[in-house]
Amino acid sequence: MRTPLSVRFLSALDTKGWLVLGVFLTLTLLVVPLLNLAVPEDSAFHVSAYFITLIGKIMCYALVAVAMDLIWGFGGILSLGHGLFFALGGYAFGMYLMRQIGRDGSYGADLPDFMIFLDWKELPWFWFGSDSFGWAMLLVVLVPALVAFVFGYFAFRSRIKGVYFSIITQALTYAAMLLFFRNETGFGGNNGFTDFKRILGYSITAPETRLVLFGLTALALAATLVFAAWLVKSKFGRVLTAIRDAESRVMFIGYNPLWYKLTIWVISAVLCGIAGALYVPQVGIINPGEMSTANSIEIAIWVAVGGRGTLIGPVIGAFVVNLAKSWFTVSFPEYWLFFLGLLFIIVTLFLPQGLVGLWKKFAARKGVAA
Amino acid sequence: MTRSTTLFLLAVLALTASLPAQAALDATQVRALAAEDSSDKVVAIRQLTQTADPDALRVLKAMSEDNLYLAGERAVIIDGERAFDAASGEAIKMPASPESVTVNNRIRGELAGALAALKLFDAERDVRFASAQKLQSKVSADMAPLLARALEKESDGEIRALLTLAHAQASLGNADPAVRLGAVRALAETTSPAIKAVLLPLTEKAGEPDDRVRYEAIAAVKSIDGRLALAENAGRIFSGLSLGSILLLAALGLAITYGVMGVINMAHGELLMIGAYSTYAVQTLFRNYFPEAIDWYLPAAIPVAFFVAAAVGVLMERTVIRWLYGRTLETLLATWGISLVLIQAARVLFGAQNVEVANPSWMSGGIELLPNLMLPWNRIVIVGFALFVLLLVWGLMNKTRLGMFVRAVTQNRAMAGCVGVPTARIDTLAFALGAGIAGLGGVALSQISNVGPDMGQGYIVDSFMVVVLGGVGQLAGTVWAALGLGIVSKLLEGWVGAVIAKIAVLVFIIVFIQKRPQGIFALKGRFVDN
């Protein structure tokens, strides 16, 4: 006797969960746009464009963190290469944005500026179709999925795991970064893509466009959370957790971990790609620096700070760490690395369950006392 | 008939004429030095040079010092208050109104060459050697007879080799095709880009009318090219060897800690950085307090770097890593955090800029094996140093009780504990050892690359690749993997460029572990997968 999909989907979150999600969506889709557009700039309630970009950016990061949590928190696989999938999604969408510049570039040519600079006469083959929004959307999903599938298939088939897997993903990302740094690779080399002008014909800097992107990011984050909650509660999610806790036993029972790991790995990569595609138009630049080792490891710390194995944890972690980063880099730039480094140490030593775990412990103690 | 050939004929004449006149120079020849016309002077200088007479050196030297005068029809040398007859060298009465001989820039250049050539006949071996070396780069056709004479007299093998080469180069301008042919054949034996450039014009019809000589020249250029390429590849293999040594120094420590504890120390690169900064600190100390012994700061830095890095390692192990046993992924993150703190600490202490660590004087320069193959001393020293550290670690691991314990814990921690190995202490000691070796790697690194807060970041992936490739728990695997990776990446670099080479190596390793997840040298034994 199977419960209908819609019912199972609704039961992914409990009442409190749906309530929180509703509040979140109301805030991001209604309150923030109103406060930004309708409230005059000198009012205390006005939400600035800077704030919208910052929160939009952090929501992209939160999306990546949820993706990371699916693979690390529920699959027990620590990837140090999620920056790669994020960047691939960003680059795939960036190609479309570059083509949207049209002849408004500084050389006034049909080709993107950096190609003129390299004296290229026509677009390389992999830029085919990059002027179509639909194709760009497809690439955003397909490219990370394909890379993740090929890499994951070989890695999981040879049962590479633990720190081995982590370092190999790091090496892969590092190799990709070197590749993208080359001008000849065809993605703008060092500078990457920037100076975007419009998206679907609308000016990319207009407040309305920014709000739409902001809202889309919020929707994507909410949808991902619901999807992830449903996924981890499904049979698939339970087998995955079992693999995390005792892979050999799961194999003895008769499951092949390869396909479970591979599926969650590809899903995680695709989510990262989508986050990257949402990130690029809001921040206005994508370059190979996104694939640096440090970036990918930072993703892990967002998840660790929030609490892995929970879905709200990564979102909280991404917000806390990135807000702290914005504050530190403005107020005490020289202490940021100390803070981040100590955060890594303290969270792993004292907060294995992250902030969510701390809250639960706190709540439980209160409950006992009461 | 080119000008140089005429000069050559003149020179031959001069040579035969001057042969019997060993005691004194020909007075008319010396008189010609004071000729009115510069071109006549040049001819005279060349003629005089051909005599290869020590007296000629004396006269030409005087001329280059503006001490040559003309008194009537006799050339005289006036040195302060004393006067000599230029041809015979005998002291004479100061002439009444000596007329100085003008030496313009053209003459001066000619004189410099002539003086260098005449030094080939000096009594001192070193002077002859230096002169022969100097002549390699600027030899002209009319010097051939002079070089032939020098060759006749020379007994030293090394100088003879240089002279033969110079003579062959000079003979390329000879009018006789047979002489040119012989010269080309002699030059074909050499390995120098400069000589290749000399031969190249002869491979074309315009530069060489005689077919046989031209074909010989083409063959000669080909054989020189072959040897040049060989030298280039030898150079690449050597730089691969030196890169491999660096990788080995970086990976040895990592292999020990990873083998014993199964944790990846992401701060391992920063331990290299600490070693390098320790070297810098010792250098500064020597500069300020023992400037006379500055060349010996490096040996002093070795123990300092080892112990400083080892101390930081012990601190890391005791305060962080110890508490995360069995949680390898968390250890990875925590050590990354430590690396961030260490980098920032280095920035605060020493500044964000790179600091300058100089090679001691005995490490600068190098051995020139071939004209285009130079082995710098600092890299040779580093290869030797890596070998030394390797022997040390090998001895420690295989010949001491500590090494035995470390190997026991690597193979089976639980069983080692059961038979009384103090595993916790072994962990600390192994970590200290690994960190100390990284510190030693930092000393080596400080000699060939920039010393800055971020210097260690690039090494963690590379050295882990070495560990992955080599397999855990065996030194041999680490050594082969480090040297193999170093040499392969340098050879690839010469072939496809640095970036593609790096990517190719990474892809190769990823594919490699598909086939052999345990590395080249897998530990044999039974493992429990937990």
Give the key terms:
heterodimer, A: 370 residues, mainly alpha, two-stranded antiparallel ribbon, two-stranded antiparallel sheet, 2% strand, B: 530 residues, five-stranded antiparallel beta sheet, 21 helices, 7 strands, cell membrane (chain B)
Characterization of the model:
The complex is a heterodimer of chains A (370) and B (530). Chain A is mainly α and 370 residues long. Helices cover 70% and strands 2% of the residues of chain A. Chain A has helices at residues 5-10, 15-37, 49-72, 82-100, 113-117, 133-157, 162-181, 207-233, 235-245, 247-253, 257-283, 293-306, 312-331, 336-350, 354-369; strands at residues 193-194, 198-199, 202-203, 285-286. In chain A, the strands form two sheets. Chain A has a two-stranded antiparallel sheet. Chain A is globular. The two termini of chain A are 41 Å apart. The mean pLDDT of chain A is 87. Chain B has 530 residues and is mostly helical. Chain B is 67% helix and 5% strand. Chain B is elongated, with a radius of gyration of 34 Å. Residues 13-22 of chain B have low confidence and may be disordered.
Provide the β-strand percentage band of chain A.
Answer: under 5%
- Shape estimate of chain B: elongated
Strand order, main sheet of chain A: write it out: 1-4
Poorly predicted segments of chain B: 13-22
Largest interface: chains, residues each: A-B, 45 and 43 residues
Q: Topology, pairings included?
A:
The complex is a heterodimer of chains A (370) and B (530).
Chain A lengths: L4 H6 L4 H23 L11 H24 L9 H19 L12 H5 L15 H25 L4 H20 L11 E2 L3 E2 L2 E2 L3 H27 L1 H11 L1 H7 L3 H27 L1 E2 L6 H14 L5 H20 L4 H15 L3 H16 L1
Antiparallel strand pairs in A: 1-4, 2-3
Helix pairs in contact in A: 2-8, 3-8, 3-11, 3-12, 3-13, 4-6, 4-11, 6-11, 8-11, 9-10, 9-11, 12-13, 12-15
Chain B lengths: L2 H16 L8 H6 L5 H14 L2 H11 L3 E4 L2 E6 L2 E4 L5 E2 L6 E2 L4 H14 L6 H13 L6 H10 L3 H15 L5 H12 L4 H7 L11 H51 L6 H22 L7 H23 L8 H23 L15 E5 L2 E4 H23 L1 H11 L1 H6 L4 H26 L10 H12 L4 H22 L1 H18 L15
Antiparallel strand pairs in B: 1-2, 1-5, 2-3, 3-4, 6-7
